[in-house]
């Protein structure tokens, strides 16, 4: 969804992108259960974590033990909203720039990927990487510019 607002010589453009209803598995959602299957070399399995039981219906950790059939993979929502693009520009009035023999002059600043709202813990929800390690965040970029027509 995008929109452009204009007032006199100022223009503001914004674009939101998002996805709703998608789910993905996050491999480390139940690290405790995963480590229970190991040799005990990792002490993380000694720290009690809230796993699902009939009395405790937590969805954070679906199982307290590793079953070998991927039940330790936690299904999580990949829904997100991202402010993808924002730009603010100013178009100079013709009377101010005609002495410099310029037909139009516009200055602008823009930014991409300012923020993402999501509950997905595995990095970028759009990519849906199931492991947080070795993922790179979505980079934010900023720019300033001038458009000149002679």
Automatic annotation (TrEMBL):
The keyword Transmembrane helix applies. Keywords: Membrane, Transmembrane, Transmembrane helix. The chain crosses the membrane at residues 12-27. This is TonB-dependent receptor SusC.
